[in-house]
């Protein structure tokens, strides 16, 4: 997530532990049952469609070629098996809203309402939001840009997750930019 070069006053080990911890708090969205429940609830098919549509919905209703280009390391046929069909079953705005509902339910279940509604969560959300909104060099980062174009949620735990999503997608887009820059 954050490189040690951008975290002044923090040693590499602490920066790495922080990044790995924050990454888990974002990526649980791919594995908690609430995600599949909410996205299937708006019309998507369970499994891969939930994953690909859930991550790419902020881009609008992109065709399989665009999702393949932004996800890069997935088999294009796998993506084409669920995209653009996903957009026939649910509008991207519905998918995004369902993903936030899933995170809301999952965070409350995992951490409790006392944590998700706490002053500490509000402070954490504020700090991570500052980091996410001040990332330099966002050109060529489509998933980051898609999520960054959305309105920020009002609830602190959802703001926290949204900011983590920006950091994750920025990092992920970088994984695609690096081999693309080398012609691979």
TrEMBL record:
Highest rank taxon of the organism: Bacteria
The protein, known as: Uncharacterized protein
Record organism: Rhodococcus erythropolis (Arthrobacter picolinophilus)
């Amino acid at each position: 997530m954050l490189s040690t070069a951008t975290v002044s006053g923090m040693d590499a080990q602490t920066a790495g532990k922080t990044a790995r911890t924050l990454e888990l708090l974002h990526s649980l969205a791919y594995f908690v049952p609430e995600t599949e429940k909410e996205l299937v609830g708006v019309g998507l098919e369970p499994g891969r469609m939930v994953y690909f549509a859930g991550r790419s919905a902020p881009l609008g209703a992109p065709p399989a070629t665009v999702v393949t280009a932004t996800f890069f390391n997935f088999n294009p046929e796998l993506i084409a098996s669920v995209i653009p069909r996903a957009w026939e079953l649910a509008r991207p705005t519905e998918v995004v809203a369902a993903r936030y509902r899933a995170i809301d339910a999952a965070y409350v279940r995992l951490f409790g309402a006392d944590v998700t509604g706490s002053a500490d969560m509000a402070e954490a959300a504020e700090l991570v939001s500052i980091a996410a909104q001040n990332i330099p060099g966002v050109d060529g980062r489509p998933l980051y840009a898609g999520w960054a174009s959305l309105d920020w949620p009002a609830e602190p735990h959802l703001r926290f997750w949204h900011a983590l999503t920006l950091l994750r997608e920025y990092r992920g887009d970088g994984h695609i930019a690096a081999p693309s820059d080398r012609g691979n």
